Amino acid sequence: MSQGQRLGIRELASAGGVTRRTVRYYVQEGLIPPPLGLGRGDHYTGEHLQALVRVRTLQEQGLTIPQIRETLAGQQPSASPVPSPARQAWLRLVLAPGVELHVSTERRLPSPVRLTELTEWCLANLPPNEEQAE
């Protein structure tokens, strides 16, 4: 992202790997700064994206919202009563009947053109079982 470039909420959410609703929730909870303007428009900057990625990383480490708030405030997060299991987010893409592609959110997805090529390859080279075809 270039210096001074602004993003709309849709672009910010996409770049951060979350939904627009999650962005609004994080703003409401004070975890990321509020947008620079009101209404529709490009009101988010690189600072918002950095904050969003930081919050998401802490959440993936198993921290709760109150613990994330404490960490962002420079405090030692309070201990969880029960340790959380390690978390990792994955995207599930259905390429063809019975064929899925699972991609970690830590990886960038291939372009739509490449995904279409992969889907076409799967359809051509991975025919359904004869029992399924009947």
Short structural summary:
The chain has 134 residues and is mostly helical.
Topology:
Elements: H1 9-16, H2 20-28, H3 46-60, H4 65-72, E1 90-96, E2 99-104, H5 112-125, H6 130-133
Antiparallel strand pairs: 1-2
Q: What does this 3D model show about the protein?
A:
The chain is built from six helices and two strands; from the N terminus they run ααααββαα. The chain has 134 residues and is mainly alpha-helical. The protein has two domains: 64 residues, Multidrug-efflux Transporter Regulator, Chain: A, Domain 2 (Orthogonal Bundle); 44 residues, no CATH class. The chain has a two-stranded antiparallel ribbon with strand order 1-2. Helix 1 runs parallel beside helix 3. The radius of gyration is 20 Å and the shape is flat. The mean pLDDT is 83.
Order of helices and strands: HHHHEEHH
Main sheet specs: 2 strands, antiparallel
- Count of alpha and pi helical runs: 6
The assembly state of the depicted protein chains is single chain
Number of strands: 2
**What is the top-level CATH class of the largest domain?**
Mainly Alpha
Give me the secondary-structure category.
Answer: mainly alpha
Per CATH, the architecture of the largest domain is: Orthogonal Bundle
Index terms:
mainly alpha, Multidrug-efflux Transporter Regulator, Chain: A, Domain 2, 2 domains, two-stranded antiparallel sheet
